[in-house]
Amino acid sequence: MLMTRSLLPLLGLLAVLLSACDSAGNADGTTINVHLENANGLSANLDRITIAGEQEMLRNTPIDDGGHFSFSFAEPLSDGLYQIRVGAQKATLALDDADGTVEIEGKLSTFGNYDFSVTGSADAAETVTTMNRIQEVAGLDEFQEMIGAVNNDYTAAYVAFRALQRAGEAGLPVHEAVVQRLPEGDPSRDNYNRYLEQLKQQIAFAKSQELIQPGQPAPDLVLQNPEGEKVVLSDLRGQVVLLDFWAAWCGPCRRENPNVVKVYNKYKDQGFTIYSVSLDGIDDNQAARLTPEQLEVARDNQRQKWVAAIEQDGLIWENHGSELKRWSGEASAKYGVRGIPATFLIDREGKIAEIGLRGAASIERALQRVL
């Protein structure tokens, strides 16, 4: 009985402590308290998002008559980007797993413009400050300096991605710098890298529209043959080369191959050769849905189909190359190829002589002029 009485003060103190923890929402978790004027009667969503990728809704909650709402989690939210959505207004913030209770105060009408205050999270507050500073930056150099000074890697990457959508090639150094700051294997890093690959292809294609003209130097290509050895287009300088884009899966290409073979057999001893670029393989969108092991198997299957088509169609020249990335490769972007078959006749000096030759007679006439 005496022992029970002696425990009563301790139990009472424990109850008080537990009650205090409960009233604050779990002391070890994350709570986001928001007050937005004129948001009463609406609902709010909290999403976890990735840069250049998908979003996952974590919570949905009603907003009370005073414009207050909260998102509470028993466990800390992991480092990353989170988006709060209220009606048509939304704002993205970086959070740290050490953030406990985050307080946001603002108005619904200006929430999407990052006109609100944040306390309880240095990273979220930095996101707001950085988004507001974009309007004051005078040029790309100043923007790069600003981004370099941002502490949170997710904020730096998110702001760069948002702000440089139309910067084109000039923005590449900034993009490449911020994506390297993201953790290896992070979905935002993977998505950002895929975006950069697509951006580089778009830039290469735009350049190709200016560069791929008769009389212009032919851009060099360094690809791998089916055995994994390098085949370099510029190594053929001194010969007349038919650069031929095709694929095993392309019906028109396979029907055109006998014409190409006919011309090759007739002129191969007169300084003429062929450099074939296969667009077989797995593109970036398909690759993103596969594990590394599955991707390796899929690309090997495509390689085997490529080899089989070479043998079946009698493409006996040595120069066969591919990135095994279908339309996601750099070779097609360099030459502005949007459809196959596509051919480019290159003279002995490495300059483009003719474009878009189809049929044995057409290839032969152009070849005779160049030879």
From TrEMBL:
InterPro entries (UniProt xref): AhpC/TSA, Thioredoxin-like_sf, Thioredoxin_CS, Thioredoxin_domain, Thioredoxin_ResA/DsbE_sf
Domain of life: Bacteria
Keyword terms of this UniProt record: Cytochrome c-type biogenesis, Disulfide bond, Redox-active center, Signal
One of the protein's GO biological processes: cytochrome complex assembly
Name listed for the protein in its UniProt record: TlpA family protein disulfide reductase
Listed Pfam families: AhpC-TSA
UniProt GO MF annotations: antioxidant activity; oxidoreductase activity
PANTHER family per UniProt: THIOL:DISULFIDE INTERCHANGE PROTEIN DSBE
A GO CC annotation given for this chain: cell envelope
Subcellular location: Cell envelope
Cleaved signal peptide residues: 1-24
CDD domains linked to this entry: TlpA_like_family (cd02966)
SUPFAM superfamilies linked: Thioredoxin-like
Residue ranges crossing the lipid bilayer per the database entry: none
Start and end residues of each Thioredoxin domain: 212-371
Main location per the UniProt record: other
